[in-house]
């Protein structure tokens, strides 16, 4: 799968020394990008949502529920595409099997996870809905609280109102992902393919990968621009304090 951060192992090394190496994602993580941008244009959001749908559908088809889908666990490769990482909380669920462990990140947790289960793969789609909500609006539906207990109460009592300022397709998508009933939650790949929000998008991972994400690469180039020396014009450095003595190495 194109949009998963893979582990690489050199099998030519002795079995007692097989250090796993992750794919290098030079741009960083989605959370840092979001903090610098505030909110994303719908076109960028649509691309990222498509890539995340493909990843989650792939994992779910293998029976794997990630259980910690969040911006900090999504890296960006050299072309600006997503790479889902950190499978430390993931679990394989056999057909019909359910999980009961309360785990993940509070702001992203589905209601059925917070209640102690039973829950399954639809919990990941709720987390994706929270992620897209934050990317689209520049803020989480549940603001940060001073402590864990307060945060838990806020998450449990949140009504998750979708802002009317968002486009119709996006509002519909968020309402279907943030559906409290996991059985009615949007969760199958063919439903995403035919969804209003994804109209005109390809769900072919190879085709998506061929086109760099100009928005992300543009931000990276701007961040790498050398700082103007004029920014240091008011910097006060008293060279006389060294009394003419050379500086120690």
UniProtKB/TrEMBL annotation:
SUPFAM superfamilies: Protein kinase-like (PK-like)
Domain Protein kinase residues, every copy: 1-198
Keyword Kinase assigned: yes
SMART domains per record: S_TKc (SM00220)
A molecular-function term among this protein's GO annotations: ATP binding
Spans traversing the lipid bilayer: none
Record keywords, A-Z: ATP-binding, Kinase, Nucleotide-binding, Serine/threonine-protein kinase, Transferase
Source species, domain of life: Eukaryota
Gene3D superfamilies registered for this protein in UniProt: Phosphorylase Kinase, domain 1 (3.30.200.20), Transferase(Phosphotransferase) domain 1 (1.10.510.10)
Keyword Hydrolase on entry: no
Record InterPro entries: Kinase-like_dom_sf (IPR011009), Prot_kinase_dom (IPR000719), Ser/Thr_kinase_AS (IPR008271)
Identification of the protein by name: Protein kinase domain-containing protein
Organism: Anolis carolinensis (Green anole)
């Amino acid at each position: 799968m194109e949009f998963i951060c893979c582990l690489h192992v050199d099998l030519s090394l002795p079995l007692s020394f097989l250090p796993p190496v992750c794919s290098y994602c030079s741009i960083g993580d989605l959370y840092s990008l979001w903090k610098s941008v505030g909110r994303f244009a719908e076109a960028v959001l649509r691309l990222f949502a498509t890539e995340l749908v493909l990843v989650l559908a792939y994992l779910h088809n293998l029976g794997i529920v990630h259980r910690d889908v969040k911006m900090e666990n999504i890296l960006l490769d050299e072309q600006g595409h997503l790479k889902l990482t950190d499978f430390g909380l993931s679990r394989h669920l056999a057909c019909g099997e359910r999980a009961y462990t309360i785990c993940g990140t509070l702001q992203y947790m589905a209601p059925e996870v917070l209640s102690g289960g039973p829950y399954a793969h639809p919990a990941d789609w709720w987390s994706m809905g929270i992620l897209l909500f934050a990317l689209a609006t520049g803020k989480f539906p549940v603001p940060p609280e001073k402590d864990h207990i307060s945060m838990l109460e806020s998450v449990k009592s949140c009504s998750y109102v979708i802002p009317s300022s968002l486009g119709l397709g996006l509002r519909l998508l968020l309402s279907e992902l943030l559906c409290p009933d996991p059985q009615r939650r949007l969760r199958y790949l063919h439903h995403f393919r035919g969804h209003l929000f994804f109209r005109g998008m390809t769900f072919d991972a190879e085709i998506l990968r061929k086109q760099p994400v100009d928005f992300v690469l543009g931000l990276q180039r701007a961040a790498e621009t050398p700082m103007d020396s004029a920014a240091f014009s008011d910097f006060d450095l008293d060279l006389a304090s060294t009394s003419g003595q050379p500086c120690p190495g």
